[in-house]
Specification:
With 121 residues, this protein is mainly β. It has a single domain, classed as Beta Barrel (Barwin-like endoglucanases), CATH 2.40.40.20. Helices cover 6% and strands 51% of the residues. Strand 8 and strand 9 form a beta hairpin. The longest helix is centred in the N-terminal third of the chain and has 7 residues. It is globular, with a radius of gyration of 14 Å. Pathway: Cofactor biosynthesis; (R)-pantothenate biosynthesis; beta-alanine from L-aspartate: step 1/1. This is Aspartate 1-decarboxylase. GO terms for molecular function: aspartate 1-decarboxylase activity. It is found in: Cytoplasm.
Length: 121
């Protein structure tokens, strides 16, 4: 049996823009993706703290150290610049894998610069 649990989270980041004409996805600073262990094109859930929207999309890497968190395509209608969001990736684990499991959480400042990386135990 496999269980689906939180794999990684970028917590309380700030939307820096939106691009309704892009095909789709969320652009995320490559440094944040690396620190969280989230891959380019990986499925993520985005929760907008400002309006309560929750949606699923996939990641696109933005330039490293740019601070970019940008909604693209249809998702651009689900938030505006300045909204605080949480970006979460999930993984499927066997019961054996869960014995040494801990999700990774990246905390950021108001400019989406990493402050701390935690692993919940």
């Amino acid at each position: 049996m496999q269980r689906t649990l939180l794999l990684a989270k970028i917590h309380n980041c700030t939307l820096t823009g939106s691009n309704i004409n892009y095909v789709g996805s969320i652009s995320i600073d490559q440094v944040l993706l690396d620190k969280a262990g989230i891959l380019p094109y990986e499925q993520v859930q985005v929760v907008n703290n400002a309006n309560g929207e929750r949606f699923i999309t996939y990641t696109i890497p933005a330039p490293a150290n740019s601070g970019v968190i940008e909604l693209n395509g249809a998702a651009a209608r689900l938030g505006i610049t300045g909204d605080r969001v949480i970006i979460m990736a999930y993984g499927q684990f066997t019961l054996e894998e869960l014995q040494n499991y801990a999700p990774k959480v990246v905390l950021v400042d108001e400019n989406n610069r990493p402050l701390e990386v935690r692993q919940y135990v």
